[in-house]
Amino acid sequence: KAGVTQTPRYLIKTRGQQVTLSCSPISGHRSVSWYQQTPGQGLQFLFEYFSETQRNKGNFPGRFSGRQFSNSRSEMNVSTLELGDSALYLCASSLSGGESTGELFFGEGSRLTVL
Amino acid sequence: GQSLEQPSEVTAVEGAIVQINCTYQTSGFYGLSWYQQHDGGAPTFLSYNALDGLEETGRFSSFLSRSDSYGYLLLQELQMKDSASYFCAVRDRDNYGQNFVFGPGTRLSVLP
Predict the structure, then answer these.
(1) I need a surface site. Which of A8, A11, A60, A74 has the fewest CB within 10 A?
(2) Residue B95 confidence (pLDDT)
(3) CA-CA distances (angstroms) from residue B69 to B21, B49, B54?
(4) How far is B46 from chain A (nearest CA, A)?
């Protein structure tokens, strides 16, 4: 069974640009959530999608957005990049959000560097 | 607000036992999870406690006390490969819905 796949794995952008990250969840998983990981802040919740609907969102500015497609694949977009957006962006999938099992399956992440 | 606290670093020797504590303050609570993350790798799930008590999975055990808003991860018979960061996470509910809130992580170093 294939795991969670995130692309691209590494990318470098400059301030003001935008970026789109992709996540393919484990087959059959309908929930996809996104996290930002930085050394100082740990894992910060961005948003969760379930069956193409945003079910929850974290405390991030509107520059951060996402969507989920009918095949459960998800994308997140960051517009007008700032230096502080440099981070590892992790995607996690689960059958229904991990409510009963507490388990999320994470991808390897997309490491974004903003110059 | 939501907050979880963990020690930032723990060091132990091979074969020893180490306990990583986690205290939490959240508006809702559905359970406490633990994740392991090696440098450059993805976080991987270790255990989950929804009810008070001890859960054992091989060399790893996890404990929860909901009345104390406290839990811990116990690693026995430490091996070099256990050197990693360990995160506790609470399934919480806020105004928007349920989500996982992660602690800052504890970096475990296992020495020979």
Answers:
(1) A8
(2) 61
(3) 11, 12, 15
(4) 8
